[in-house]
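--- STAGE predict ---
source: upstream dedup step, 1 unique chain passed
mode: sequence only
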Amino acid sequence: MKIQADTSSTLNLIGAINSGAVSVGGKTVTGSFIITPTDPVCRWQIKDFGELTGTLLEDLFSSGREILLVGTGRVHHFPGAHLLQMIATQQYGVEFMSSLAACRTFNILALEGRAVSAAVILPL
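--- STAGE serialize ---
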């Protein structure tokens, strides 16, 4: 399913997505990944939302982006109390949503010029 036409050659945008892969800049990404509008896409070692820890989340905050989207897989998962407490101490906006929703939202915010990053769990 194509979710966004590539309207900017300078931005990393998610062009197409299926259950186990996404297309970013004409390259296929399989497995969970982290994306920003300008940095190279990198692998994220998580395969399931239950593997998300405070340490892994803290690593995501180090990107310096104002908004962090966490794609939780096929369905939306809400973080537990421990993660919510940690998030409350940060100066970033953090949103948890299904991975498909995170991909769509990332593209919109990136095209608006927002300082966004997304950590997306695949497969969808």
